[in-house]
Design brief:
This protein has 4 helices and 8 strands. It has helices at residues 14-24, 31-42, 94-107, 124-132; strands spanning 5-9, 47-53, 56-64, 79-85, 112-118, 136-144, 147-148, 161-168. Strand 4 (79-85), helix 3 and strand 5 form a beta-alpha-beta unit. The longest helix has 14 residues, at 94-107.
Length: 170
């Protein structure tokens, strides 16, 4: 693993750094998303955990102390939301370090953490990582567009088709 990895909270200059990094890898992540995250971090509505390698952003996760969507909406169970590692830094343990810090922050206020993971193959490595770390499906079934998907309902296998998982923290 790279010795120059720093895990920290988001700073204002990360807004453009993340926008640029995602644009280079052709992922649609507008700067407005990162501006919103930074503002929410400032008022403690969201934690933004950033990985940096050699002074370049490498990935991030956000943690909502109180999610407004999904099966844990308006409960005091922290939810990991929007977790990404820049492609050129993947498979180097960055995601593990980010999630370690995120779980540590969550454990300060709760003995449980949850997250939603997409179901298409693009989320395959994330799905495996969560299971290896002890996350299990929460039993609420599949969610689509922030709503519990009824049995036999039609949906599209895109980023909005999600399975929620949770983990007991020590």
């Amino acid at each position: 693993m790279d010795e120059n990895i720093v895990i920290r909270t988001m700073v204002k200059s990360d807004i453009i750094a993340f926008y640029t990094a995602f644009k280079e890898q052709v992922w649609n992540k507008p700067a407005e998303i990162f501006e919103k995250y930074f503002k929410e971090q400032e008022v403690k509505e969201r934690y933004v955990i950033v990985a940096e390698i050699n002074n370049e952003v490498a990935g991030y996760a956000t943690l909502l102390p109180k999610d407004k969507n999904g099966p844990y909406s308006n409960m005091d169970i922290p939810t990991v939301c929007d977790f990404n590692v820049i492609i050129k830094y993947q498979n180097r343990g960055i995601g593990t370090l980010i999630l370690d810090k995120t779980e540590k922050i969550a454990a300060e206020t709760c003995n449980r953490i949850c997250l939603g993971v997409g179901l298409h193959s693009g989320y395959g490595s994330a799905q495996r990582m969560y299971v290896k770390r002890g996350y299990i499906p929460d039993g609420t079934g599949v969610w689509f567009n922030n709503a519990n998907l009824k049995q036999y309902a039609e949906c599209i296998n895109n980023d909005d088709l999600i399975l929620y998982m949770s983990k007991q923290l020590v």
